[in-house]
Inverse folding.
């Protein structure tokens, strides 16, 4: 039984047919829908807000993994919780009070995550592990799909995995470790070996003609790496 999850990032989908795209990627075997929220302020791009999230909710039963690249965070996080998000992640630099924002997300019935840019150290984790359901490691600078994976992210994954394992051993509670940016069937095994259990993939799915084949290629690579690890 694998803990691996593939989160299809609709950033690379056809935004004019978003509902249909979400349905198709769910039918093709994705585990989660990853919803990137960009505000043209915290990151140099602009995507979609809670209204689009609520509309999308009707097209797929999959967990909605909302990745907030916005500042400020708190009010929009609440709006996404109301719009049907299951998991809401934000960047520590974007919140004035990280502990408060995490508590706020939980108070509105969602799981909460912290997202780390390539050059952001993991220090923000020091005092909030008990508030976290997910740690998201960015392997590209946030803002755009289709960028190349930054290899240094593998070191950060190993460091985050060590923190999670120590925490889980102490408390029995698990925290997901998600990687976001430049993931594809060629590098996913190395990423899993470094400790990730949840894999965001945008262009590796939506810029392929056959979503099912694209997801299957990543799953096969993950299965091979699980066998090799034994
Ligand atoms: C980038 C977003 C990613 C993006 C990944 O800022 O957070 O979720 O969609 O796209 P790919 O998989 O194409 O790198
Ligand atoms: Zn993302």
């Amino acid at each position: 039984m694998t803990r691996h999850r593939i989160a299809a990032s609709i950033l690379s989908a056809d935004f004019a047919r978003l509902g249909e795209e979400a349905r198709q990627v769910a039918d093709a075997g994705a585990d989660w829908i990853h919803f990137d929220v960009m505000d043209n302020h915290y990151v140099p791009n602009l995507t979609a807000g809670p209204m689009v999230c609520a509309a999308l909710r009707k097209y797929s039963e999959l967990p909605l993994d909302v990745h907030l690249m916005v500042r400020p965070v708190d009010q929009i996080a609440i709006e996404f919780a109301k719009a049907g998000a299951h998991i809401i992640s934000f960047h520590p630099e974007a919140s004035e009070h990280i502990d408060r924002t995490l508590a706020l997300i939980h108070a509105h019935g969602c799981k909460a995550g912290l997202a780390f840019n390539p050059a952001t150290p993991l220090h923000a984790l020091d005092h909030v592990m008990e508030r976290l359901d997910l740690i998201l490691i960015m392997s590209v600078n946030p803002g755009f799909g289709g960028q190349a994976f930054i290899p240094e992210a593998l070191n950060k994954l190993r460091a985050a995995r060590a923190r999670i394992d120590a925490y889980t051993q102490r408390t029995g509670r698990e925290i997901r470790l998600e990687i976001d940016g430049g993931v594809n069937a060629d590098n996913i095994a190395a990423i899993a070996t470094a400790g990730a259990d949840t894999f965001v993939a945008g262009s590796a799915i939506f810029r392929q003609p056959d979503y099912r084949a694209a997801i299957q290629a990543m799953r096969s690579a993950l299965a091979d790496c699980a066998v090799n690890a034994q």
About this structure: The mean pLDDT is 97.
